[in-house]
Amino acid sequence: MLQNPQTCFLKLLVAQHVMLYWPVLLKVRPIPSYQGTVSPPSWRTAALPIPEECWDAISIDFIAELPKFGSYNAIMVVVDSVSKWAHFVEVVTTKMAAGSANLYLRHVWKLHGLP
C-alpha cells in the first residue's frame, strides 16, 4: 500500500527531532549557586504614597490609528489608579497633544474635579 508523501515526510521529521533534539534536553547540567554572593542594595527603597481618594492619581493614554468613526480616529483613556474606573474620550489625532488638557477638563474634571 502506498503512503502519502507528506505523511512520510512528517514521520521522518519526528524521528529526526526525537533523535537529535531530545538527547540535548536530557543532559542535566548543574546550576551554579549564587546564594550569598548577591548583596542587598545599599540604598533604602521607599514605598510610593497611596492616594487617599479616588481620582487623586490618574493615568492618561492614547489609542491612535483607529478606523474613522465620524470625524474621530483615536481614543483618550483616563484611568483612576485607586478605583480602576476609566473614561474613554473620542479624539482626533491632529488635536491630541494640543487639546488633551482641554479634553480632560471637559470630560473628566467636570465630573471628578482636579486630582
- SSE ordering: HHEEEH
Strand order within the widest beta sheet: 1-2-3
Number of strands: 3
Supply the number of helical segments.
3
Q: Helix proportion of residues, in percent?
A: 25-40%
Mind sketching the topology for me?
Elements: H1 5-20, H2 22-26, E1 58-63, E2 74-80, E3 86-91, H3 96-112
Antiparallel strand pairs: 1-2, 2-3
Briefly summarize what is shown:
With 115 residues, the chain is of the alpha+beta class.
Output the keywords:
alpha+beta, 115 residues
Q: How does this model look, in words?
A:
- With 115 residues, the chain is α+β, with helices and mostly antiparallel strands.
- The chain has a domain at 58-112.
- The protein is built from three helices and three strands, in the order H-H-E-E-E-H.
- The chain has helices at residues 5-20, 22-26, 96-112; strands at residues 58-63, 74-80, 86-91.
- A three-stranded antiparallel β-sheet has the order 1-2-3, covered by helices on one side.
- It is flat, with a radius of gyration of 29 Å.
- It starts with a helix and ends with a helix.
- The relative contact order is 0.11.
